[in-house]
Write a structure and sequence with these properties.
The complex is a heterodimer of chains A (183) and B (117). By secondary structure, chain A is mainly alpha-helical. Chain A contains six helices and no strands. In chain A, helix 2 runs antiparallel to helix 5. The longest helix of chain A is centred in the C-terminal third of the chain and has 36 residues. Chain A is elongated and about 55 Å long. By secondary structure, chain B is an alpha/beta fold. Chain B has a four-stranded mixed beta sheet with strand order 2-1-4-6, with no helix packed on it. In chain B, strands 3-8-7-5 form a four-stranded mixed beta sheet, with no helix packed on it. In chain B, strand 7 and strand 8 form a beta hairpin. The chains are: A mainly alpha (183), B alpha/beta (117). The interface between A and B is medium-sized, with 18 and 13 residues.
C-alpha cells in the first residue's frame, strides 16, 4: 500500500470510528444505517465507472463490472425492503462525509492514467472494502434493530467480504506484473 | 417322496434364479438411472464445494444470493452465463468434461465435481 493510500485508509478508519466527529456511527438508527450503506454502494459504483473509463487492464475492468453489478443489486434489494417496510432512508452526518470523500477521490483519480490509476483504484478498493466491512460487521449489524434489515446486511457483508478478497488478488496481480516488468 | 421333493427343489432353484436375474436387472437400473445433484450458491460459496457424479447425472445450481453469479468451467469449456437471484441452471454430466469450476464474476468462488465412471 502506498503512503498516500495508507494515510487515506487510516483517515477513513479514524472517521469510521467517530474519532473526528462528535457523533459516532454506533449512534445511527436503522434508517440512517440504510442511508450510509446506500451511499457507500453508490460511491463504489462511481469509482467502478471511472475505472471502466480510464483503465485498460482487463482484470481491473472485470472487478469494476462486478462492483457495479453487485452494489446495484444490493441497493435494489435494500430499496425494495425499505419500500415493503414503508420507510425512507435518512440522510445523516456520516453519509455526507462519505459522499464528500467520494467526490475528492473521484477528482483525484480522474487525473491519473495507466498503471498509476490501476494501482490507486485497486488499493482504494481493498482499503475501502476492509474499512466498510469492519464497520458493517462490528458496528452496524450489532446495532440494527429490524431483523429483516439485519438479515440483508448479513447477506451483503458476505458478498462484500468476497469483494475484499477479490480486491486483494487484484492488488497482488498488479504488483507482480509491475515487479516482473522492472526485472 | 423324492418325486415330490424334486419339483420343489426345481421350483426353489428357479425362484432363486429368477430373483437373481431380477436383482441384477435392478442393480443395472440403479447404476444407469441418472441422479440429480443440487448445489446451492449461498454467501459467495458453492455448497457443497465438492461432489461425486457419474456421466448422465444432472447437476442443478440454485442461486440463493442477492447478486448474480455464473457457473463456469475453469478452462471455460462450459458456462451457465448469468444466473440471477433465485435463478437455477442445470447441466448433464458428460464423461470427458472438466469438473473444476468458478464464478466468473467472483473468482474467489471455486468448487469441483469429480466424475466416477
Amino acid at each position: 500500500m502506498s503512503k498516500k493510500s495508507l494515510i487515506a485508509a487510516v483517515a477513513a478508519l479514524a472517521l469510521m470510528h467517530g474519532a473526528a466527529f462528535a457523533k459516532s456511527p454506533a449512534e445511527l438508527n436503522d434508517l440512517e444505517i440504510a442511508h450510509v450503506a446506500y451511499t457507500a454502494d453508490i460511491s463504489d459504483i462511481r469509482y467502478a465507472h471511472l475505472a471502466l473509463a480510464i483503465s485498460k487492464d482487463p482484470k481491473v475492468h472485470e472487478f469494476a463490472r462486478t462492483m457495479i453489478r453487485d452494489h446495484a443489486a444490493v441497493n435494489d434489494q435494500a430499496l425494495a425492503l425499505l419500500q415493503k417496510l414503508k420507510v425512507q432512508p435518512q440522510d445523516n452526518f456520516f453519509s455526507k462525509q462519505l459522499s464528500e470523500n467520494a467526490d475528492k477521490l473521484v477528482a483525484e483519480m480522474s487525473k491519473l492514467t495507466g498503471k498509476a490509476f490501476d494501482r490507486r483504484y485497486a488499493e482504494n478498493e481493498l482499503g475501502y472494502h476492509q474499512a466498510v466491512n469492519k464497520l458493517v460487521e462490528e458496528t452496524f449489524i450489532p446495532n440494527i434493530e429490524n431483523p429483516e434489515v439485519r438479515a440483508l446486511f448479513e447477506d451483503a457483508l458476505a458478498i462484500f467480504k468476497g469483494h475484499e478478497m477479490h480486491a486483494a488478488e487484484m492488488v497482488k496481480a498488479l504488483l507482480q506484473r509491475q515487479s516482473l516488468k522492472q526485472q | 417322496m423324492r418325486t415330490l421333493r424334486r419339483p420343489a427343489s426345481v421350483a426353489a432353484a428357479l425362484a432363486a434364479a429368477t430373483l437373481a436375474v431380477f436383482a441384477s436387472v435392478a442393480d443395472a437400473a440403479d447404476n444407469s438411472t441418472p441422479r440429480r445433484h443440487v448445489v446451492e450458491i449461498q454467501k459467495l460459496k458453492f455448497v457443497p464445494a465438492t461432489l461425486e457424479v457419474s456421466p448422465g447425472d444432472i447437476i442443478v445450481w440454485i442461486n440463493r444470493d442477492i447478486v448474480p453469479h455464473t457457473i463456469t468451467a475453469t478452462d471455460k469449456s462450459w458456462d451457465s452465463k448469468t444466473i440471477k437471484k433465485a435463478g437455477e441452471w442445470q447441466m448433464v454430466v458428460q464423461a470427458d468434461m472438466p469438473g473444476t469450476y468458478l464464478c466468473r464474476f467472483h473468482p474467489v468462488m471455486k468448487a469441483q465435481f469429480s466424475i466416477v465412471q
